[in-house]
Amino acid sequence: MITRPSVSEGQLTSCQKSMTITVCRAGAGNVKFLILGPVEIEAQDGRQVAPRALKLRALLAYLCAHSGEVVSTARLTEALWSGAPPRTALTALHVYVSKLRQYLHSLGLDAAEMITTQPPGYRFNLGGHDLDLKQFEKKISKAVELKSLGCSEEASAALCSAMSLWRGRALGDLRAMSAFDAVGQCLDERQTFAHMQRFEIELELGNHQGIIGEIYSLIAEHPTWESLYEYLMVALYRSGRTVEALAAYGQIRKAMVQDLGVEPGPRVQRLHQAVLSHDPSLALSQDAGLLKLTS
């Protein structure tokens, strides 16, 4: 077992102080709602469960994604029926809310307090329970704070912890419904932001080889995102793979010309020229110069 010497508050560095976070562990009776992947609930006994009915899962997911907000019945019916609610939608919605409350009650939750009726709709209250999205946002905020303090390693660790909360595509099979795909895209953007922040930090730390595979995976999903190619080209170049770094530029140029009819932006073009000329600003110790080069 590894033991660490105790450190007084006065001896803590700014990074250590920032990492001193009060950890709220789920106590007896607490559950965790999960939407960063298939919509599920981690019950008190550790089981991951979910309503079988699609509309109930959709209702739960939408309320979770907007927890703490009053969501109008109009928004809920639009979301649950993909913009084409039937005349009976409002009545059906009330039935679904009742059934969802019953489901939550079956898990030992105070469903009446968790889903409250507040004009013009409903409000989902987490209370002392957890939501993976809330945890994700807290960890991202902590990482941004740590990065601003110059605590790169701690910031990277916080970002890794945040991304570990994802269990697949946000909202899972609900993405087939237009309103939920829109919500999912917003969540995807937050996940991509976390990836980008981490790539930048890992390049600063000299961990360029370790992120190449991750960048390639994201490029497969976003083939025309120039910023991803910037990170990839730098990571490849610093790994001694100059030819591949140049090929990466060719890949983004081809994708943009064929799909969008435009050339890559000036940042990527300058980076391409820097790789061709072995610009000293690409060296590991010159991250400030690199940022200037691509700004």
From TrEMBL:
Residues 26-126 bind DNA. Belongs to the AfsR/DnrI/RedD regulatory family. It comes from Streptomyces seoulensis. PANTHER family: TRANSCRIPTIONAL REGULATOR REDD, TRANSCRIPTIONAL REGULATOR REDD-RELATED. Pfam families: BTAD, Trans_reg_C. InterPro entries: AfsR-DnrI-RedD_regulator, BTAD, OmpR/PhoB-type_DNA-bd, Sig_transdc_resp-reg_C-effctor, TPR-like_helical_dom_sf, WH-like_DNA-bd_sf. This is OmpR/PhoB-type domain-containing protein. PROSITE patterns: OMPR_PHOB. Residues 26-126 form the OmpR/PhoB-type domain. One of its GO terms (biological process) is phosphorelay signal transduction system. Keywords: DNA-binding, Transcription, Transcription regulation, Two-component regulatory system. GO terms for molecular function: DNA binding.
